Amino acid sequence: MDLLVLGGSVVAFRLLNGGLERLVPPPPSAQRNRWKWRNIWTSLAHSLLSGSWALLGFYFHPQMAEDLIDTHLPAAHHLLGISVGYFVQDFFDMMYHQKIQQCWELLFHHSVVILCFGFAFLVHRFVGFAMVALLVEINSIFLHLRTILLMAGLAHTTSYRLTSLLNLGTYVVFRITTLAWMTRWLVLNRENIPPNTYTLSTVGMAVMTPMNIVLFYRLLRNDFLTSSRREKEK
């Protein structure tokens, strides 16, 4: 059953990626990079699905928040498999369409996520902890929308400005704060976590935290610091 969920997710996201160009045709400004246009829309679909599903999971099953190791509903476990399938599909999609030097950071990120989520999915433990990590996808919704607006040539619109503000706000709440809370939880619950699992989780946090801090600075610089400097120079 686990392999069926995982394999079905890979196939479903592959089919979605292939059909998105007809569902949301790329605008003239994105014609030169049609692959990225499809890829970002596929990522947006995953973020909408996984972010909302994880949030609703904690809402309808609050017991999962009290025991992130062994308590979870089958739906939460299925979501984890679906997300692993997405990251596997996206990993190979980037490998096929881009040079390694262009996407090595994302490939590294996906490798860590696949390893950590895949472990929790296969052993049926720490699913709740993985659901906390998937709350990050709530921010990814606005991160992907921001990229879509940029590719559509709408960087100077009110929609883009609003999306940028929501992106930074949700970045702090659902990405930086969430990762900080997860790191704290690992430290406080070290005695309840097997050594190998603790090491894997700690390495995952050690990789994700600096990557997300660097990305936050880039977003802040590109959307606010640079634009503010340009306005002063006028």
UniProtKB/TrEMBL annotation:
Residues 32-228 form the TLC domain. Keywords: Membrane, Transmembrane, Transmembrane helix. One of its GO terms (cellular component) is plasma membrane. It is found in: Membrane. It is a multi-pass membrane protein. The chain crosses the membrane at residues 129-153, 165-186, 198-220. GO terms for biological process: membrane assembly; phospholipid homeostasis; plasma membrane organization; regulation of membrane lipid distribution. Pfam families: TRAM_LAG1_CLN8. It comes from the Eukaryota. PANTHER family: CT120 PROTEIN (PTHR13439), TLC DOMAIN-CONTAINING PROTEIN 2 (PTHR13439:SF2). This is Domain-containing 2. It comes from Podarcis lilfordi.
